[in-house]
Specification:
The complex is a heterodimer. Chain A is mainly β. Chain A contains no helices and 11 strands. Helix content of chain A is about 0%, strand content about 50%. In chain A, strands 2, 4, 5, 6, 9, 10 and 11 form a 7-stranded mixed sheet that branches. A 4-stranded antiparallel sheet of chain A has the order 1-3-8-7, with no helix packed on it. Chain B is mostly beta strands. In chain B, about 0% of the residues lie in helices and about 50% in strands. Chain B has no helices and 10 strands. Chain B has a 6-stranded mixed sheet, with no helix packed on it. In chain B, strands 1-3-8-7 form a 4-stranded antiparallel sheet, with no helix packed on it. The chains are: A mainly beta, B mainly beta. At the A-B interface, strand 4, strand 5 and strand 10 of A face strand 5 of B.
C-alpha cells in the first residue's frame, strides 16, 4: 500500500504570496495518478488537479501541479482569500483503492 | 446538473447497523464506478469502498472489510453502503464520489456512540 506524506502540516501565508505544498509517496505512483483536492470547512473536497499536473474544469490557473515518481508539488502562485483551506493529495493508480495524504492547512498569516 | 445526495446517517450504538444511500442524478449513473470516502471529525479523508459501474467488482479498505458492504441499483440510480458491527472509530461524514473524483455528495454524518 502506498503511503502519502504531505508537508508542511500547516502553511501560514498572506494573500498574494506563493504557496508550495509537497506530497511524497512511499513508492512510485504509476502513470502520475496523483490528484490534489481543496476542502473548506463544512464542504466536500473539490478536485483541483489530476494526473499530477492537469487542472480540473473550472480551476483557476494560479493552481498548478507538478512532479512524478514519488515527489509531487501543488503550487498556488498568488493566494486569494478564498484559497485558505486544507489541501489533500491522493493517489489512484491502477487499483481502485484510493490513498490520501494527511492534508496541509493553508492559513492566513 | 450532477447531484449526489447521501442519506441514512444518524446516531447508532456500537455493534449496530446502518445503511447509507446515495441518490445520483444528472449523469449516466450506470456508466460510472462509485466510491465511498469518509472523514472523521477534524481528521483527514479515508477511502472506504469502491464498486464498478456494473457491480461486478467491489473493493474495501482493510478497516471495514467484512463489516461493510457496498452495492448499487442502477435502475434506481442509487449507491448503498451497508454498515454492520459499527465501532466508535467509524464515526465520520460519509461521502459518495464518482470514480472520476469530480463529483462528491455533501456527505452524511454517522455517529457511533452509546
Amino acid at each position: 500500500e502506498i503511503v502519502l506524506t504531505q508537508s508542511p502540516g500547516t502553511l501560514s501565508l498572506s494573500p498574494g504570496e506563493r504557496a508550495t505544498l509537497s506530497c511524497r509517496a512511499s513508492q512510485s505512483v504509476s502513470s502520475s495518478y496523483l490528484a490534489w483536492y481543496q476542502q473548506k470547512p463544512g464542504q466536500a473536497p473539490r478536485l483541483l488537479i489530476y494526473g499530477a499536473s492537469s487542472r480540473a474544469t473550472g480551476i483557476p490557473d494560479r493552481f498548478s501541479g507538478s512532479g512524478s515518481g514519488t515527489d509531487f508539488t501543488l503550487t498556488i502562485s498568488r493566494l486569494e482569500p478564498e484559497d485558505f483551506a486544507v489541501y489533500y493529495c491522493q493517489q489512484y493508480g491502477s487499483s481502485p483503492k484510493w490513498t490520501f495524504g494527511q492534508g496541509t492547512k493553508v492559513e492566513i498569516k | 446538473q450532477v447531484q449526489l445526495v447521501e442519506s441514512g446517517g444518524g446516531v447508532v450504538q456500537p455493534g449496530g447497523s446502518l445503511r447509507l444511500s446515495c441518490a445520483a442524478s444528472g449523469f449516466t449513473f450506470s456508466s460510472y464506478g462509485m466510491h465511498w470516502v469518509r472523514q472523521a471529525p477534524g481528521k483527514g479523508l479515508e477511502w472506504v469502498a469502491f464498486i464498478r459501474y456494473d457491480g461486478s467488482n467491489k473493493y474495501y479498505a482493510d478497516s471495514v472489510k467484512g463489516r461493510f458492504t457496498i452495492s448499487r441499483d442502477n435502475s434506481k440510480n442509487t449507491l448503498y453502503l451497508q454498515m454492520n458491527s459499527l465501532r466508535a472509530e467509524d464515526t465520520a461524514v460519509y461521502y459518495c464520489v464518482t470514480d472520476t473524483a469530480i463529483y462528491w455528495g455533501q456527505g452524511t454524518l454517522v455517529t457511533v456512540s452509546s
